[in-house]
UniProtKB/TrEMBL annotation:
Organism: Halobacterium bonnevillei
The gene coding this protein: ychF
Family: Belongs to the RelA/SpoT family.
Keyword Nucleotide-binding: yes
Protein name: Redox-regulated ATPase YchF
Residues annotated as signal peptide: none
Alphabetical list of InterPro entries matching this protein: Beta-grasp_dom_sf, G_OBG, GTP-bd, P-loop_NTPase, TGS, TGS-like, YGR210-like_G4
Membrane-spanning intervals of the chain: none
Organism lineage string: Archaea, Methanobacteriati, Methanobacteriota, Stenosarchaea group, Halobacteria
Length: 396
């Protein structure tokens, strides 16, 4: 199972810079709106503490890599075109963009916290990033509402009598990968009846918003935190109770990119996500000064925030559980590899579901599973925890 993290936000906030820093790609970046038109997909990584050292072993990853006890597990990252107010009515690049978003399991909303770009992504001063945070939520809600209204219309025109409204709505919203059971739960959780005739405009919007929150969880990447303006906005927004419902990660995409580039040049030793690095090669005065200010930044904020934002999205918001397939005789597998894989499983995945993720044959032949750390048998419906090392015992 591979997850897609979508980078969203208005133009010129630094989505492509973030994307390039995370994936070491080279898509165009620019201080003008709509630099990006076609979405780019790349491979980024999320960190998981490797389990091999606990077994006195060294791992041999088959995908991604391991750096000094930290596994870097590949995941897909998508850089989409900038979104402006009215996109659901076709403004800017409009609906195309929203369609690209459909494919994302979780969103990182990149916001220019420096306040130096307006709603259209043009240069300005003293713009309040709150407006950006609000507009993206509103825009997504309107998009969901449009689709919800279509479902209601269809329900009303086809059935006319009371019926399973949630089935019709789930079908209309199938692109968001929601089920009729989930829609029903949302309707009831808002104290609404299972009859759209009784829903007023506010009810419909509340419903759209709730379905959106569940199907497109997101974190806010407060970008350009290397500027004093952004740091001031950070103080005021993260202490504003109106924004308690969101989680914010302080980010400098510039800093991450500079460190990755210096690392490629072989002049710094930097492990992505770390809050410090070593200068290992000859750097000129200018680069040395730049690196020292980055050192100050990562020390203060606990990293550049790029890794942290990706991991907050996947692990905290989406609830993805990383699991190592292990085996009883040490951790070696038949071809001599040690802990070659880390599987990213959906929240609440059981031992048996894990077996199906490994391979359908493994799932079909499932007998029981074993927690390799404590050498104890676990049952098919046991829910797995992050970093479990699990061996599957099959009939074949
Ligand atoms: N100070 C600072 N500037 C940044 C940072 N990240 C990006 N920028 C600048 O912001 C501008 C826009 O960056 P892009 O990455 O092209 O922004 P985008 O969100 O992809 O823009 P569109 O493709 O037009 O939607 C560029 O001039 C970047 O150099 C950062 O962390 N700090
Ligand atoms: Mg871009």
């Amino acid at each position: 199972m591979s997850y897609r993290i979508g980078l969203v936000g208005k133009p010129s906030v630094g989505k492509s810079t973030f994307f390039n820093a995370a994936t070491m790609n080279d898509v165009p970046e620019g201080a003008y709106p709509f630099t990006t038109i076609d979405p780019a997909v790349g491979e980024a990584y999320v960190r998981v503490d490797c389990a091999a050292p606990e077994f006195g072993e060294t791992c041999t990853p088959s995908t991604g890599y391991c750096d000094d006890g930290t596994r870097f597990v590949p995941t897909k990252l998508v850089d989409v075109a900038g979104l402006i107010p009215g996109a659901h009515e076709g403004k800017g690049l409009g609906n195309q963009f929203l369609t690209d978003l459909n494919e994302a399991d979780v969103l990182v909303h990149v916001v220019d916290f420096s306040g130096q770009t307006d709603m259209e992504g043009e240069p300005t001063e003293d713009h309040d990033p709150r407006e950006d945070v609000d507009f993206l939520e509103d825009e997504l809600d309107q998009w969901y509402l449009d689709i919800l209204e279509k479902g209601i219309e269809r329900y009303e025109s086809q059935h006319m009598v009371e019926g399973d409204v949630e089935v019709e709505l789930a079908e209309q919203m199938s692109a968001f990968r929601t089920s009729d059971e989930e829609i029903k739960q949302v309707i009831l959780s808002l104290d609404l009846e299972l009859d759209p005739d009784t829903w007023d405009a506010d009810d419909r919007l509340a419903l759209a918003r709730e379905i959106r929150k569940r199907t497109k969880p997101m974190v806010v990447a407060a970008n350009k935190m290397d500027t004093p303006e952004a740091q001031a906005n950070w103080e005021s927004i993260t202490s504003d109770p109106d924004y308690d419902h969101l989680s914010f990660v302080p980010v400098s995409a510039h800093a991450e990119k500079a460190l990755k580039q210096a690392s490629e040049q072989g002049v710094v030793d930097y492990r992505p996500g770390d809050d410090d690095f070593d200068i290992t090669g000859d750097v000129g005065d200018e680069q040395a000064a730049g690196l020292e200010s980055i050192r100050e930044f990562v020390g203060e904020f606990g990293g550049t925030g790029v890794q942290q934002a990706l991991e907050a999205a996947l692990f905290d918001e989406l609830g993805v559980v990383p699991v190592f397939p292990g085996s009883a005789n040490g951790l070696g597998t038949t071809d001599g590899r040690v802990l070659p894989d880390v599987f990213l499983l959906p929240e609440g995945a059981t031992a048996e579901e894990f077996a199906f993720h490994v391979h359908s044959d493994v799932g079909d032949g499932f007998l029981h599973a074993k927690d390799c750390r404590v050498n104890r048998q676990i049952s098919a419906d046991h829910e797995l925890d992050a970093r479990d090392v699990v061996e599957i015992i099959t009939t074949n």
